[in-house]
Amino acid sequence: MRIHCKTLLRGTQWRHDMVLHLDSGGLITAIQAGTERDATASLRGVVVPGMPNVHSHAFQRAIAGRTGPGGTERDSFWSWREAMYRCANQVSPQQLGAIAAGVYVEMLKAGYTSCAEFHYIHHQAGGAAYMNLAEMSERIINAASDSCIALTLLPVLYCAAGFGETGVSDQQRRFVNPADQYLRLLEACYRLVSGNPQLALGVAPHSLRAVPGSTLQEVLQAWPHKHCPVHIHIAEQPAEIASSLDFLGARPVEWLLEHFPVDGHWCLIHATHMSDAEAERAAASEAAAGLCPTTEADLGDGVFRTDSWLATGGHIAIGSDSNIRISVAGELRVLEYNERLASGKRNVLAEPAMPCGQFLYHRAAKGGGVAIGQPVGQLEVGFRADLLELDDGHDLLAGLPPAAQMDSWVFAGDSSMIKSVWVAGRCVVRQGIHCREGLVGPGYARALSELRSL
Q: Residue 332 and residue 178: Cα distance in Å, rounded?
């Protein structure tokens, strides 16, 4: 297959009248100058690499906008977590699969072409394992297939309710696997994803508070696929920092860097509350900061210092996390707005030759591809043809140069400005309509309705 792109973002440069040559698996084998006559498909709008979503809990879409405490109770991350636990302990395998498929359709319509699913509902309510240990993971994989999104499955390792604790609460029993059982789960998931180039597998210790260091060491040493993605929640809340200092004698990121070989395969989810020294060391490790600014704002987590992180050479990626809102443009917008509010300046996350919208998109897409362990986030030979095409006929985009279109989309628009979305050279969204919306939509709506009635 050959796809002609009238205007294409290759690296940091805009190229015109380029043809992507693809192999049968949708990987780019060549990029050459050409015209529509040289291609089997032609995209007239501005084309950028599809955005990887590095952090999603798909089932949490079921509680989006429904987690206010009511009355005069003071709300926080910890009270929100109680609402999340209630949902997590009600969702069935069928409902999980239906919700995930619907969420992935929404992601594709928003411009995400791949997703890292941080998946921790493994067992039946009460904690007994399903006969198929990977039952819930398989539902996630099938949902990705049904929706046509590329998936990096991150089965979560969860062992303890907090630092120094040996057990979990009743609400957390569906999440728990001892090390040997978790390794069996990983092996089962590896069999499920093998042979499909749009599927990948990683290791996901939930957090340092939920996974003792010795257990994490045991798992990482035993798992033979040493270069797989490793994602971990870390330094999300001030209370976590205080508990880490009390129990470990060090801040979470500081302790992790001292005890594990953190490198470019790692993604530090949130990492909101790092000291300057931690941030400098973490950036030097090549690990990405997996930022979820909409969820972080919703939960009152705090503000990641993106500008200073990038100045130290750090890599960034974005995720939709709780899926309270699914919007590539929205996540990037909040990242920049946080910096504007803190500094009193505008267009903080930019470079002289790269305006803010383009700069944010380029850095998040490139960092996200590395973080999920798939050849995505860049339009280069050897990468997959995951594409997002902006609508050149939209009132706010028509007649603008490419970089200005990116700014307009990030700061003034949303999915209505997206003309088409492609995964591995296949168009899956056109003018806001997903190719399988009619098949996925009814089950999605039914599952959401059933959970709201409980």
A: 37
